[in-house]
Amino acid sequence: MRRLSRGFTLIELLVAIAVMALMALLSWRGLDGMSRAQNQLQTHADDALALQVGLSQWRSDLDAMTELRGTPALDWDGRVLRITRTHALREPVRLQVVAWTLRGQGINSTWVRWQSPPLSLRSEWANAWSRAQTWGQTPSEAERGNEVNVRTLSQWQIFFYRGGAWTNPLSSEGTPTTPTTPATPAAPPIPNAPPLVSTPSTPDGIRLVLDLSGGQSLTGKISLDWVKPTLTGNVP
CA 152: distance to chain centroid? Predict the structure, then answer.
């Protein structure tokens, strides 16, 4: 017997096309959602890594903080934190001035770090110390070449630990009581200078409080405490 064969009707074909289109749409939305989630995770990871690197550099600068007799190791004027630290090369003994500041206003401010080249003479240190102060207020194009943008912040705060309590560095409690002898440009090179010493001008601890801006993947406040390596006892 002859078999009768027939194809799909127009309605069946339209229904099949509609189902395939719906499945393609759902698949595309699923892939788009996965791509967005992956991008968000990557952005979050990059933001966390940048913050981690910045905090690690902050701690490294404080760990390497040092001073010669009559040479301040640390200064905070409410806007710029200047640090005298040992350079990583250390052969011969060299110093380096680094500075941290928050540039801008509001949630789009940028946490910035500046550093000088290795220093071998007290006159070079004095010049770099002054340049760091100027950089924090009105940076020139040349000085911007020595800076690195760390992260976007909305605010930062610094506290010093002295006398068994955390205090505002600009308050009377946070001001060192023992003056130091100012350095003179005519002093000998750093390798022949008096040995490195620790003076009361250096606080026992430094607390950094960062207010992360709302425009980033990481938000909220983060606090990091640094304690002088030679300090004994408990710091709350």
Answer: 9
> With 0-12 CB in 10 A as exposed, 13-18 as middle and 19+ as buried, what is 93?
middle
Q: Report whether 158 contacts 208 (CB < 8 A).
A: yes
- From 138-147, 149-158, 193-202, 225-234, the region with the lowest mean pLDDT: 193-202
How does pLDDT run across 114-132, given as a tens digit for each residue?
Answer: 999 998 888 899 999 999 9
CB 135 within 8 A of CB 102: no
Q: Can you give the pTM of this predicted structure?
A: 0.71
Q: What distance in Å separates the CA atoms of residue 67 and residue 84, rounded to the nearest whole number?
A: 7
Which residue bears the tokens 């719906």? 22
Domain ranges of the chain: 67-227
Could you tell me if 228 and 207 are in contact, meaning their C-beta atoms sit under 8 angstroms apart? Answer: no
* Per-position b or e across 159-183, b if 16+ CB within 10 A of its CB: bbbbeeebbebeeeebebeeebeeb
Torsional class of 164: left (φ above 0), alpha (ψ -120 to 50), beta (otherwise): left
